[in-house]
Recover the amino acids of this structure.
């Protein structure tokens, strides 16, 4: 992979001082995660007295995303960094590529769903974990639906992609080769979710994270992973509304998802990746992974 900046003869990239340092990013992510969780816990006690559990949990999650995403944004703005630059928002992405990203994201949902169901056979979820997930996804009122849509289609997409596929990847590219930067940014986006490490969800979340981080590098823009993540989350919302298990023909195979859906999803992802890679290679024939 080639980076936008050039290196000297020894091949080591020369850091651009208009980007934060890796240590600065690390400390900011840890601080933002702490602040987000602290604000969510702080709000929890009063929310439970005012709303049903499913509503209070959604509001707590919303508060977490505000803290986790808001603190880095405020910090980088106050430090005078060029926000569109460090968040990879300066370059546009062709409609064709965005469409391919959306198709990739939609297909990726079924791959992740299959792997999640498969993993449960090896690492069963506890009752508390299942109850928590069910409460967050419960949509028995208009307010519950609105909160879920804001969380899944807005906050999860903007915050996660902005932090990890945006500023973190941009910074790592300045201090290491891009292959290493993509891997580290992908692992970091999963590692920060401590519950996923404990439950084993990190196994399939790494697949999701790597593809989105690769897209951010390949397109040179955060818009590509944003489109992919939005499509992924949108299919999740549709699944919550329609319940694919009971509405899509042949969706389940025993306790797993039908392999037919998995094969089709993998084929879509493969074709989308090949098409996106081909598009950018045609624009820059010398581009290659270093």
């Amino acid at each position: 992979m080639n980076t936008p900046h050039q290196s000297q003869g020894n091949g080591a990239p020369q850091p651009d001082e208009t980007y934060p340092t890796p240590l600065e990013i690390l400390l900011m992510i840890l601080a933002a995660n702490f602040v987000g969780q602290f604000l969510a816990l702080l709000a929890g006690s009063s929310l439970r007295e005012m709303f049903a559990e499913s509503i209070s949990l959604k509001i707590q999650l919303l508060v977490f995303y505000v803290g986790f995403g808001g603190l880095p944004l405020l910090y980088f703005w106050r430090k005078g960094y060029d926000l569109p630059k460090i968040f990879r928002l300066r370059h546009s992405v062709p409609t064709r590529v965005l469409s391919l990203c959306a198709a990739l994201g939609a297909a990726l949902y079924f791959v992740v769903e299959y792997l999640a169901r498969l993993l449960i056979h090896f690492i069963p979820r506890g009752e508390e974990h299942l109850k928590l997930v069910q409460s967050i996804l419960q949509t028995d009122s208009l307010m519950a639906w609105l909160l879920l849509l804001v969380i899944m289609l807005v906050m999860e997409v903007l915050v996660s992609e902005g932090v990890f596929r945006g500023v973190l990847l941009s910074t790592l590219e300045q201090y290491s080769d891009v292959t290493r930067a993509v891997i580290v940014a992908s692992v970091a986006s999963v590692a920060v979710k401590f519950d996923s490490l404990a439950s084993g969800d990190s196994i399939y979340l790494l697949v999701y994270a790597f593809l989105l981080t690769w897209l951010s590098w390949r397109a040179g823009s955060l818009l590509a992973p944003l489109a992919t993540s939005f499509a992924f989350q949108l299919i999740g919302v549709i699944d919550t509304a329609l319940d694919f298990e009971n509405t899509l023909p042949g969706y389940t195979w025993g306790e797993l998802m039908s392999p037919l859906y998995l094969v089709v999803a993998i084929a879509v992802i493969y074709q989308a990746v090949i098409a996106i890679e081909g598009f950018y290679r045609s624009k820059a024939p010398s581009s290659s992974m270093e």
About this structure: Residues 268 and 274 are 10 Å apart (CA to CA). The radius of gyration is 20 Å. The chain has one domain: 22-283. The longest helix spans residues 142-175.
